[in-house]
């Protein structure tokens, strides 16, 4: 487990340079006292490991910029990939405040030659929500402008790059609008926004946080997280506590069976990430979200082996009742 004595640690993502696993994570000082305040003080930290279990903290990767940059409030969740020329790209969410105090999220990137020293591409984002396809703040349907958590991966056929984005549709009930946002790029520097890869439907999720697509044991899956307060009334009535979810997919680019998503963990874990060990086996890691007393915990879990059993994603070594949480999702609506 990776924790910091003086800071809360939550969302995270990985890079692998062949010698070490690099953990990038959000953190904020516990001197804030209120863990909910962490979101607006988030910086991106960095740690390294050879086994995904024992971590050494190294210098932070990114901090927020001075106003009026798109990331002058906080730097949030992202992903890291390597360009064929050897340059590392860290895509991240930049948060800023709108005039009414609510936050607006946009996406930018930084580059590095060594995964240690990062240089932002500038003070302007490379992507923001287009109201032709994605909900913006002026809709009044949500507490923020949700356009974040860029998950970048190479095209399966070798034709450029794709980015999946936590976003919301422009139509439908408020707690059904979570969609898989989409953008494409030929060079990682210039991006074109596309319509979402999923549609708002009676799936019961107001947002699909920290998206990831991978193929586990031959099965394409979409991994995402959603808390109970961001799920529909029928999901809450069905007893969902939120947590990490896995939805079946036909490919890394969908179609995605979000209405058939199954809960992998309860809300003791969040922001789940699938990562390969050096032996090729898949493991799941999440941050510790809800403690026994219901309070926020923080800290990245140890790796837990996963497999596809033909019907769902199963997790070995998941403690307590959450170990039985990989059951059919409650009815949406």
Q: Can you describe this structure in just a few lines?
A:
The protein has 333 residues and is mainly beta.
Summarize this structure as a short list of keywords or feature phrases.
four-stranded antiparallel β-sheet, 1 helix, glycosidase, Fructan_Metab_Enzymes, 333 residues, Tachylectin-2, Chain A, hydrolase, hydrolase activity, hydrolyzing O-glycosyl compounds, mainly beta, Glyco_hydro_32
Q: How many structural domains?
A: 1
Oligomeric state of shown chains = single chain
User: What structural category do the secondary elements indicate?
Assistant: mainly beta
Specify the helix fraction band.
under 10%
- Note the run of SSEs as H and E: EEEEEEEEEEEEEEHEEEEEE
The percentage of residues in β strands lies in: 35-45%
* CATH class identity: Mainly Beta
Mean pLDDT equals 94
- Largest beta-sheet characterization: 4 strands, antiparallel
Distance between the termini: 37 Å
Task: Supply the CATH architecture.
Answer: 5 Propeller
Over the alpha carbons, how many angstroms does the gyration radius reach?
Answer: 18 Å
Point out poorly predicted stretches.
321-333
Q: Helix count, per DSSP?
A: 1
Would you give the CATH topology? Tachylectin-2, Chain A
The side-by-side strand order for the widest beta sheet comes to: 1-2-3-4
Record field, number of beta strands: 20
Question: What is the CATH homology-level superfamily?
Answer: Glycosyl hydrolase domain, family 43
Protein name: Glycosyl hydrolase family 32 N-terminal domain-containing protein
Keywords: Glycosidase, Hydrolase
GO biological process, one term: carbohydrate metabolic process
Organism: Streptomyces mashuensis
């Amino acid at each position: 487990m990776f924790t910091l004595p003086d800071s809360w640690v939550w969302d995270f993502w990985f890079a692998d340079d062949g010698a070490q696993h690099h953990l990038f994570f959000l953190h904020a000082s516990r001197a804030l006292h209120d863990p909910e305040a962490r979101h607006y003080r988030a910086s991106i930290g960095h740690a390294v490991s050879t086994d995904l279990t024992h971590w050494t903290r190294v210098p932070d990767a990114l901090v927020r910029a001075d106003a009026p940059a798109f990331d002058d409030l906080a730097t949030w969740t992202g992903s890291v990939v390597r360009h064929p020329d050897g340059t590392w790209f860290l895509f991240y969410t930049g948060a800023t405040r709108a005039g009414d105090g609510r936050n607006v999220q946009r996406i930018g990137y930084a580059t590095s030659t060594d995964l240690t020293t990062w240089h932002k591409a500038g003070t302007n984002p490379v992507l923001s929500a287009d109201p032709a396809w994605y909900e913006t703040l002026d809709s009044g349907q949500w507490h923020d402008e949700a356009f974040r958590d860029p998950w970048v991966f190479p095209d399966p056929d070798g034709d450029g790059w794709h980015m999946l984005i936590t976003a919301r549709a422009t139509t439908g009930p408020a707690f059904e609008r979570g969609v898989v946002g989409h953008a494409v790029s030929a060079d990682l520097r210039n991006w074109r926004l596309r319509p979402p890869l999923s549609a708002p439907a009676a799936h019961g999720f107001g947002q699909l946080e920290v998206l990831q697509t991978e193929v586990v044991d031959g099965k394409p899956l979409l991994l995402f997280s959603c808390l109970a307060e961001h799920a529909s009334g029928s999901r809450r009535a069905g007893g969902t506590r939120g947590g990490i979810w896995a939805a079946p997919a036909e490919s890394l680019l969908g179609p995605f069976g979000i209405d058939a998503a199954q809960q992998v963990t309860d809300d003791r874990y969040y922001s789940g990430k699938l990562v390969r060990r050096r032996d090729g086996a898949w493991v799941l890691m999440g941050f510790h979200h809800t403690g026994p007393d219901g309070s926020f915990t923080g800290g990245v879990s140890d790796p837990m082996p996963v497999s596809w059993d033909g019907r769902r994603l199963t997790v070995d070594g998941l403690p307590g009742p959450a170990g039985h949480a990989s059951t059919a999702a409650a009815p949406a609506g």
